[in-house]
Design goal:
The strands form two sheets. A two-stranded parallel ribbon has the order 1-2. A two-stranded antiparallel sheet has the order 3-4. The chain has two domains: about 55 residues, no CATH class; about 45 residues, no CATH class. The protein contains four helices and four strands; from the N terminus they run βαβαββαα. The protein has about 100 residues and is α+β, with helices and mostly antiparallel strands. About 10% of the residues are buried. Helices cover about 30% and strands about 20% of the residues.
């Protein structure tokens, strides 16, 4: 998709989306800016889990479901539904977090 856009592109990522926009921007000269909003900002080739592991106290790793292999060969991560509220959405009502985790 990025290759089909002829104008300059700004990608914005929140949370794990920081890893997504970092990977998506690779090799696309039209991507001019990456904006990280409370997001992972990994080095090239670094995963979100590797980045989280650099900072003691991270609770992300144990909450992740097994990675899903994508058709591109990459991997995608998901927080286990039963752990989503505490890990990612503790500031919203639990019923709303259940819907968000679905």
């Amino acid at each position: 998709i990025l290759g089909s856009i002829k104008s300059p592109v700004v990608l914005v990522g929140h949370s794990y989306g920081g890893s997504v926009i970092s990977d998506a921007a690779e090799g696309h000269a039209n991507v001019k800016t990456l904006v990280y909003v409370a997001a992972f900002a990994p080095d090239a080739g670094e995963t979100a889990v590797q980045l989280a592991g650099k900072f003691p106290g991270s609770t992300l790793g144990p909450t992740l479901a097994p990675p899903v292999t994508l058709s591109s060969g990459g991997k995608d991560l998901y927080i286990q539904q039963e752990k989503f509220h505490d890990q990612f959405a503790a500031d919203v009502p639990e019923a709303d977090a259940r819907l968000m985790a679905a």
